[in-house]
TrEMBL record:
UniProt key word Transmembrane helix: yes
Region span, Disordered: 257-310
Protein name from the UniProt record: Ice-structuring protein
Bilayer-spanning residue ranges: 21-46
Keywords: Membrane, Transmembrane, Transmembrane helix
Compositionally skewed regions (Low complexity) per UniProt: 265-310
Superkingdom of this protein's organism: Bacteria
Amino acid sequence: MKTYVTPEEHARIHRRRRRQALGLVMAVLLVIGILTVLGAGVRLVASLFDNTEQMQEYEDKLEGLVLFDPLPFEGIENIDDLTLREAAVWGCIYNIQETQGNFDNYAHDPVTEQLLLPAVEVDTYLARLLGPSFRLTHRSFEMDDMTIAFDEATQCYSIPVTGGVGYYRADVTAMFKQDGKLHVTVGYIPMNTTGDLIGAQSDTPTKYMDYLFERTGGSWYLTGLTESATKPEQAASSQANSVVMMDSDELQEAILQGVNPDAVAGSEASSGEASSGDAASSEASSGEASSGDAASSDAASSEAAASTAG
């Protein structure tokens, strides 16, 4: 028997299917929206806790000072003048090298081929580190094995061609606020110098220092340098190597007896040394006694022979 669908019923079926399709599309869009919002939230939270970019910024600022390993100071006016000049010039040089890759945009002396570094570049570098109010009086200065000449006419420093300058490179490992100051913990990684034993070391910092920044006008500027609570890994490993190792049976016996294992190991070592000493003493005594007996018997034999001859 054939079943006929009226035009009204046919239209109602089409409307129901359209509503179902629209509901499915809306559900898919809702799921996509929820996932997008969740992903954005996760990225936002991650960005709040990720200060990698900020740490890199401070690493670039401090590169010049770390190069020359300055002594601790409180107040930028108390920093060594030569160290500040070295940091200002070579920090600027390293910053240009890292950001631009070369010095093609800078003039060079036609005779000596030395790089001509404008004083304004040095001022800009120092302003980022110490604040815009800080002023450095530009002049020539002597380093360990070179002279950095300053030309008043051109207002440029003449930088000698060299393979590398400085003792350490910076590695910012932590940043935290304490007593209203920003502490930037910097690991000192020895520079790879050709012909130097330092060049054979890894990229592990050999020491840590905290650079102190104070907030002025919405920005943080360097005001001091102090030793860090963070210690290099070598110190921890050397301390671990100082522990006396014991045999497992001896350690178990010491634990059962309630004895300090280190003391047991020390006493065993002392007793071993004492036993060796006693053995050596007894051997020496036996040797001396044997020598004495032999000498006595020889003397007796000589006397008997003499009396017989008489």
